[in-house]
UniProtKB/TrEMBL annotation:
<dbReference type="InterPro" id="IPR039262">
    <property type="entry name" value="DTWD2/TAPT"/>
</dbReference>
<keyword id="KW-0808">Transferase</keyword>
<keyword id="KW-0949">S-adenosyl-L-methionine</keyword>
<dbReference type="GO" id="GO:0008033">
    <property type="term" value="P:tRNA processing"/>
</dbReference>
<feature type="domain" description="DTW">
    <location>
        <begin position="1"/>
        <end position="188"/>
    </location>
</feature>
<dbReference type="InterPro" id="IPR005636">
    <property type="entry name" value="DTW"/>
</dbReference>
<protein>
    <recommendedName>
        <fullName>tRNA-uridine aminocarboxypropyltransferase</fullName>
        <ecNumber>2.5.1.25</ecNumber>
    </recommendedName>
</protein>
<dbReference type="Pfam" id="PF03942">
    <property type="entry name" value="DTW"/>
</dbReference>
<comment type="similarity">
    <text>Belongs to the TDD superfamily. DTWD2 family.</text>
</comment>
<keyword id="KW-0819">tRNA processing</keyword>
<dbReference type="GO" id="GO:0016432">
    <property type="term" value="F:tRNA-uridine aminocarboxypropyltransferase activity"/>
</dbReference>
Length: 226
C-alpha cells in the first residue's frame, strides 16, 4: 500500500491481484496526486499493473498520448461520466461480452468536468454512468451529494458489473473501509455530503456569491439532479 508501517493497509488488500479482463485508465487531475488520503493507490494495489494505468494531467492530446488516443478510438472503450448522453453501465454490460477498457476521471466534480470537456479524446468512447444504488463509504471526505462515490468505489462497482462478479466490489472496498475506520479511530470526523448539510441546516460556510454555484446549491436542497 506504500503507507508507513503504523498505518499499513496491506492486510486488507487481496493476497494476489484480482484477475479481471477489463483494463482501467485512471485520468488523474494533478491536484489529486498530492492528497494524502486519495483512493487510487488502493485501487491500483488491488489490480494487476497492466489492468490499472494511471495518467496524471489536465490536457491530453494524440501527439503526447498516442496509446490513450488509440484506446479512446477503440469501440469497446467506455468512459464513466454521468450525464444526459450516458447509458447505464448495466445495460451496456448485458449487450456486450467483449473485454472492455474503461476510462475514469479522478478529481473533484469541477476538475472532472474540466478534463472531460477540454479534451476531445474523452468524448470519443461510449459514455456510461452508474445507478445511484449505494452510498459512499469514503466518509472522511465531503462529497457533493449522498450518491457521489470516490474513484475507488466507482471502479469497484463498475468492475463488478463488467466482470459479472459481485465479490470484486467487496474486495476492492475492503481497504477503503479499513482506511476510513483507522482515520476515524485517530481523530478524523465523519464528513456528511454537502447535500445533507444544506438540507439539514448544518452548512456552516458562507454561501457563494457566484450565481451559478448558488443555483447548484439550491438544486441540491430541492432534490434536483445536477
Amino acid at each position: 500500500c506504500s503507507r508507513p508501517q503504523k498505518v499499513c493497509l496491506c492486510p486488507f488488500l487481496p493476497v494476489h491481484p484480482l484477475k479481471v479482463s477489463t483494463c482501467l485508465y485512471i485520468i488523474q487531475h494533478p491536484a489529486e496526486e498530492s492528497r494524502v488520503l486519495r483512493t487510487v493507490p488502493l485501487l491500483a494495489a488491488c489490480l494487476p499493473p497492466d489492468k490499472c494505468k494511471i495518467l496524471v494531467g489536465r490536457r491530453f492530446n494524440e501527439d503526447r498520448y498516442p496509446e490513450l488516443a488509440t484506446v479512446c478510438r477503440n469501440p469497446n472503450t467506455l468512459i464513466l461520466y454521468p450525464g444526459a448522453e450516458a447509458t447505464n453501465l448495466e445495460e451496456v454490460a448485458v449487450m456486450s461480452s467483449s473485454p472492455s477498457v474503461m476510462i475514469i476521471i479522478d478529481g473533484t466534480w469541477s476538475q472532472a468536468k474540466d478534463i472531460f470537456y477540454k479534451n476531445a479524446l474523452f468524448r470519443l468512447p461510449k459514455q456510461v454512468q452508474l445507478k445511484p444504488s449505494i452510498s459512499s463509504q469514503y466518509v472522511i471526505r465531503t462529497q457533493p451529494t449522498n450518491t457521489c462515490l470516490s474513484t475507488l468505489e466507482c471502479a469497484a462497482v463498475a468492475l463488478s458489473i463488467l466482470e459479472k462478479n459481485k465479490s470484486i466490489q467487496e474486495t476492492i472496498l475492503h481497504p477503503l473501509q479499513a482506511l476510513c475506520s483507522f482515520q476515524l479511530q485517530h481523530g478524523a470526523q465523519i464528513h456528511h455530503s454537502k447535500e445533507h448539510l444544506l438540507k439539514n441546516g448544518l452548512y456552516d460556510k458562507p454561501m457563494p456569491k457566484n450565481k451559478r454555484k448558488l443555483r447548484r446549491m439550491e438544486l441540491l436542497v430541492n432534490n434536483v439532479k445536477i
